[in-house]
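Changelog-adjacent note: as of this version, every example in the card shows the full chain rather than a window. The one below runs 85 residues end to end.
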Amino acid sequence: MSEAPNPVRAAILALTAAKGAGKTVTPEEAAKAVSPENFVRVLKDVRAEAVRLHKAGAIAIYRKGKPVEDPDTFKGVYRLGLPAS
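Full-length structure tokens:
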């Protein structure tokens, strides 16, 4: 039995891939891609999925232009992008 598609994961991966290397997206952009009307409710899911994707090396979480050291403990405003190669 296969896992159901995760719309939050799909949105994050699609948006970061579309931006390309060196560009980032906001968590709000990812949440609005999933649910334009209720994006605020989706923000918690975006953060949780971003942490999982960061740990897997699929994306990077950036604070003040730099990748976060520990995705489990970062605070404040963040952006999502492709990992620096």
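Structural remarks: Residues 7-81 form a domain with the Arc Repressor Mutant, subunit A fold (CATH 1.10.10.10).
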